[in-house]
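User: Could you go from structure to sequence for me? I need the amino acid at each position, not a summary. Structure tokens:
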């Protein structure tokens, strides 16, 4: 038991002990300086007597209040019980201990006087002062304690929120990577197959196909891991993809491709537009319908990005295509939240997909680049 007590003493924060000692020294010095100034009492003798006799009682009053009454009643919002308990405690300390000690000091200091106040007269005269003094010390110590608790709580909440945010971002990043793996284009295998065929035929476009496949791989494996990419880079890879799709005869072709960008320096989240076209191509290639055409239009200005894709001869339900795009929609939910709109419309076998993204300004020093 004794060893445990010593171990706990060793674990006490030395700086905390120093702050407590500084607090009590300050209280006593200020109080005794006031007594010396107001009543002409010798400072050193008053300070010594107070520190020897009054301070231990004040220590008992303060620490019992802070470490017993506060946790037992105040923190649990039992304000009436706290008030009664504290009032009883301070009355017991003042009447049974503080005033008798002060009266003893009074007799010692004024031993040469002929007429001294009786204890009852002394109590009537100095009770309020003693009560207020002890109350003031508890209020000061209690205020410091509550302020420290509040600061600590705020710091813990801030730390917890930061940890939750970091965990949320990590989970979102993991989820995005998982979702992107679900929409990972299988056209590369087809493109490589086409490249093999072109190589055997000694086609003149084989080197160009190699360059475009290399560019696409570089974008998807490396550049797409960045926070933002220049939108022109995204469109370059879409153009490369459409080129590769047209190498081999398929049941779907791009009829028109319209790209209008008023701000070439605008950046967006990587691989956010590409999956829209790739998914629709992959979805359409699984169909038995022939001669399907796509019309793609992308317009970008300083505030908005609008992507419109139209596909004809669409005979499936709107729910089916929405389900196919669900992984992409989830990525948009995570990365753009309320700053985007995605709509699917079907009329007379013409499917229209509309994506609208609000571009968000991110203040950066010495740059006018816009991010979305």
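Assistant: Here is the amino acid at each position, in order:
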């Amino acid at each position: 038991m004794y060893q445990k007590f010593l171990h706990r003493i060793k674990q006490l924060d030395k700086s905390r002990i120093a702050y407590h000692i500084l607090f009590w020294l300050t209280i006593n010095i200020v109080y005794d300086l006031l007594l010396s100034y107001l009543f002409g009492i010798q400072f050193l003798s008053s300070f010594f007597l107070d520190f020897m006799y009054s301070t231990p009682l004040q220590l008992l009053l303060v620490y019992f209040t802070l470490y017993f009454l506060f946790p037992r009643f105040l923190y649990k919002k039992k304000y009436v019980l706290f008030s009664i308990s504290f009032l009883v405690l301070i009355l017991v300390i003042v009447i049974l201990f503080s005033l008798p000690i002060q009266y003893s000091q009074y007799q010692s200091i004024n031993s040469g006087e002929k007429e001294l106040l009786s204890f009852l007269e002394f109590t009537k005269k100095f009770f309020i002062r003693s009560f207020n003094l002890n109350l003031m010390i508890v209020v000061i110590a209690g205020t410091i304690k509550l302020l420290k608790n509040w600061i600590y709580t705020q710091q813990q909440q801030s730390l917890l929120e930061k940890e939750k945010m970091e965990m949320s971002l990590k989970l979102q990043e993991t989820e995005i990577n998982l979702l992107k793996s679900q929409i990972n284009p299988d056209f590369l295998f087809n493109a490589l197959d086409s490249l093999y065929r072109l190589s055997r035929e000694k086609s003149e476009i084989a080197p160009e196909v190699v360059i475009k496949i290399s560019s696409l791989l570089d974008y998807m494996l490396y550049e797409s891991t960045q926070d933002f990419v220049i939108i022109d880079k995204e469109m370059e890879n879409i153009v490369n993809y459409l080129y590769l799709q047209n190498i081999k005869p398929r049941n779907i072709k791009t009829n028109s491709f319209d790209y209008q960008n008023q701000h070439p320096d605008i950046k967006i989240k990587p691989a956010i537009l590409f999956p829209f076209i790739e998914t629709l191509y992959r979805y359409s290639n699984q169909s038995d319908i022939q001669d399907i055409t796509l019309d793609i239009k992308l317009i970008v200005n300083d505030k908005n990005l609008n992507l419109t894709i139209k596909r004809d001869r669409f005979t499936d339900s709107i729910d089916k295509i929405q389900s196919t795009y669900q992984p992409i929609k989830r990525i948009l939910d995570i990365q753009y939240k309320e700053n985007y709109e995605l709509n699917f419309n079907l009329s007379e076998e013409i499917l229209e997909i509309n994506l609208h993204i609000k571009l968000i300004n991110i203040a950066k020093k010495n740059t006018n680049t816009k991010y979305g």
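One structural detail worth keeping in mind: The first helix runs from residue 2 to 11.
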